[in-house]
From TrEMBL:
InterPro entries reported for this sequence: Cof, HAD-like_sf, HAD-SF_hydro_IIB, HAD_sf
GO CC annotations, alphabetized: cytosol
Pfam families xrefs: Hydrolase_3
Name of the protein in its database record: Cof-type HAD-IIB family hydrolase
UniProt keyword ATP-binding, yes or no: no
Keyword Cell inner membrane appears in the UniProt entry: no
UniProt keyword annotations, A-Z: Hydrolase
Molecular-function annotations in GO: magnesium ion binding; phosphatase activity
Length: 300
């Protein structure tokens, strides 16, 4: 047993020494329960970049959603947004995928029958909900957080309807980056996911969930890993030189490809079984900061 542990520790040390880039998820990983980046983590990411490591973000959020939650002086080397639908280096957009307009129209008809919370995210501009569904959306998110919903996701929905959602009278199905669906009843989301799986036989699109209360749809064969490929190509890096940290099933395509994969303590077992290591603390406990500061020890 001791020999096995020593070999495993040596393998971990060797893998870390080869790391040239770190890719981070946001919700449930980098953001705390108030959907903010802690000051300690912000400072440490800056120091890691000063030491020559590339820092990338790979998230289900759009670029506008990212800007709404990170500190003003927050800087990284690149973003993969909307679970792989777009990528950015500084303000330069490397690519952008969009959903089929006919798919968007058909989904809106069906989602209204099911009374699901949704957010339509265009490639440019604010996310929006149809004005006719405003009453249903507000009713679902009012009051105290249901025990079935994670605190950070509930706060994100509260923040969305109070500050970030536009209420539009008409659907504009062109140039849609993603559609986010949510319900406090996990059973309803599970049923919706089953419907989406059947719909994939008629329309080409991908879907992913970060919790049991949500699912997002993107273009076909798109995920965080396909988006990260563009960033690695830009910086002449390989997946083997990357350490990635995530907590949700939408992180799995990326975690399965990188040289060193890390799951947050709060990740489900379905994610933890595919990683090399997990953090000692959750996102609520500033777990990412403690993990990185322990793994990449920098001089004071």
């Amino acid at each position: 047993m001791k020999s096995f542990l020593v070999k495993n520790l040596c393998k971990i040390k060797e893998s870390i020494m080869n790391i040239k880039a770190i890719i981070l998820d946001m919700d449930g990983t980098m953001l705390n329960e108030e959907s903010k980046v802690s000051e300690e983590l912000h400072r440490y990411l800056r120091r890691l970049r000063q030491e020559g490591l590339k820092i990338f973000i790979a998230t289900g959020r759009t670029l506008l959603e990212i800007e709404n939650v990170v500190p003003e002086e927050f800087e990284v080397d690149g973003f993969v947004t909307s679970n792989g639908m777009a990528a950015f280096v500084e303000k330069e957009q490397l690519f952008q995928h969009s959903l089929e307009p006919s798919l968007v129209e058909g989904l809106m008809e069906e989602v209204q029958k099911r009374n699901l919370y949704y957010e339509i995210h265009p490639a440019v501009g604010n996310r929006y909900v149809l004005k006719e569904d405003q009453g249903m959306i507000l009713h679902m998110i009012k009051g105290e957080r249901p025990s079935s919903v994670e605190e950070n996701e509930w706060l994100s929905r509260k923040s969305a309807i109070e500050e970030h959602i536009d209420w539009k009278r008409e659907l504009h199905p062109n140039n849609i980056s993603k559609i986010y669906f949510f319900h406090t009843d996990k059973g309803k989301i599970k049923s919706w996911i089953s419907f989406l799986e059947k719909l994939k036989l008629q329309h080409g699109f991908s879907s992913s969930s970060s919790t049991e209360n949500n699912v997002e749809i993107m273009a076909e064969n798109i995920n965080k890993a396909t988006g990260v490929e563009y960033l690695l190509e830009r910086y002449n890096l390989s997946f083997e030189e990357v350490l990635a940290v995530g907590d949700g099933e939408n992180d799995l395509p990326l975690l399965k490809r990188v040289g060193y994969a890390v799951a947050m303590k709060n990740a489900p077992n379905s994610v933890k079984e595919y990683v090399d290591e997990q953090t000692d603390f959750s996102y609520k406990e500033n777990g990412l900061y403690y993990y990185l500061s322990n793994k990449f020890k920098l001089d004071k």
